[in-house]
Amino acid sequence: MTLVAIAASAVTIAMLISQLTVIKQLKQAHKVPILQFLMSFLSSILWLKYGLIKHDNTVIFVNGIGSIISFYILASFWWYSTTRSHVEIEVLATAVTGVLLVSYVDHSRDPMAVEAFSMVCCLMSLVFLASPLSQIGNVVKLKDASVLLPSVALLAFANNILWLVYGYIHQDPFMIFPNIIGALFCALQLVLIAIYGRAAAGRLPVALEDDGVLASSENVQMTEISHGL
């Protein structure tokens, strides 16, 4: 492993481990949207396969860890849920999607199959970047950046820069492109934090509605965590 690979792996794993704080919220019966964790699980599985295709041990290692952590979080959703059948259906649908995509690239005779699969991996990374977009609108509208954590935004920025450099070293456009977008998006968050500050940092968590699900400001901050891959 190069120094860049080690640093990128360490930052990404730190961000993945930080997601485990959601389990405390689940234990306290908070309503936490499951979608981002389903996408995290699917993304880790797809990037794990991408690493296997490219024979890239760094990508394999990071996303192997990511798959385990994401699955553990989803298992916690199931364990603490009052409607376990809904969680089972959502997790099953996500797993089936992953199996179908991996099977496609394994068995397809289309010479463009690997490139198409790589594009899907790239798009999965962009899904994480889109998740906090609605909150950016709220920050500008309310002139209050208290829902954005400076430490998380800085860590995510570093994460994207490291994977951007890693992708450049390996001349891999499917790593370069999403991490350019990710770095710019994290920079935007840092600019908003600098402009609007954290005026409401001392307030009690405020309920925000996201697709019909109420979430505390702590839950919103979870959406700021994005994979470097």
From TrEMBL:
Keyword Phosphoprotein attached: no
Keywords (A to Z) from UniProt: Cell membrane, Golgi apparatus, Membrane, Repeat, Sugar transport, Transmembrane, Transmembrane helix, Transport
Subcellular location: Cell membrane; Golgi apparatus membrane
Name of the protein: Sugar transporter SWEET1
GO MF: sugar transmembrane transporter activity
Membrane topology: Multi-pass membrane protein
Superkingdom to which the source organism belongs: Eukaryota
Keyword Secreted: no
Any one GO CC term of the record: plasma membrane
Entry's transmembrane regions: 6-23, 35-53, 59-80, 117-140, 147-169, 175-196
Pfam families according to UniProt: MtN3_slv
Gene3D superfamilies per the UniProt record, alphabetical: 1.20.1280.290
Family classification: Belongs to the SWEET sugar transporter family.
Cross-referenced InterPro entries: SWEET, SWEET_rpt
